Predict the 3D structure of the following.
Amino acid sequence: MKFTRVLLKLSGESLMGDGEQYSHAKLSALAQAIAQVSQLDVQVGIVVGAGNLFRARSANLEIVDRVTADNVGMLATIMNAAIIRDYLRGEGLQSQILSPREVRPLTKSFARDEAISLLQRGQVLIFAGGTGNPYFTTDSAAALRALEISADALLKGTQVDGVYDKDPHKHADAVRFDSLSYDEVVARRLQVMDLTAVTLCAEQGLPMFVFDITDPASLVAVIEGRQQGTWIRKESVS
C-alpha cells in the first residue's frame, strides 16, 4: 500500500522505559523514525494515549467521578504530546499540537481544514486531548482524527507484532493473523481497539495496520511495506 498520509496511534506505555514515565532512548528513536518517514514524503499525524501517566479506568471511581477521571486522562495526553513534539523539533521537524479546545500555551484548537493544510506543508501534527468528551478512549480519538484528515490508514503501534487469536504473552500456541476484516474482529472479540473505534473504521472503510513499535524503526518498515503485522480492512485478504 502506498501511503501519502497516515495516522499513528501510540500508547502512553510506548514512551516508558525501565520503570520511568519517559524513556529518552525510545523518544529519540521515535522522533528519528518519524523524521525518516517525513523524508519519504509521507504526512504524519499522531494520537498518543496517557497510560504512562494516568488511567481513568484504574482511578478509584468510588471517589473520583468517571467524567473527572476521563478529563484528567485527556489532560495527560496533552502532557505526552508536548514531550513528543519537542523531541520531533529536536530532529528538525516542524510540529504542532492540536486539541478539541485550545490549552495555552501548548495547543491550538483542532480545525480540519487547518490541520490538512499544515500536514501538506510538512508539519507533523499531534492530536491530543482525546475527542474532547468523556467516555471515549484515545482509540476512538485516533479513528476520528484519521478519518477527519483523510488518512490512508490508521497505524496502531503496540507491544506485539500484530493481532493474535489469544494473548501471545500467555499462550505459546497463539496464532497471529496476517489479515482480518472488521467484522471478524468484532465476532472474535479481539482486543484490537474499543468497539466504538472499530465500528467507526468499519463504517468508513478505513484500513488499519497493527504492528510492534517496541523498536520505533519498525514504523519506517511499515511505510516501506516490509513490516510484519496485521491488516484490518472491510474484508480480510487471504
Remarks:
- The CA atoms of residues 1 and 225 lie 7 Å apart.
- The first strand starts at residue 5 and ends at 10.
- The chain has seven helices and eleven strands.
- The chain has one domain: 5-233.
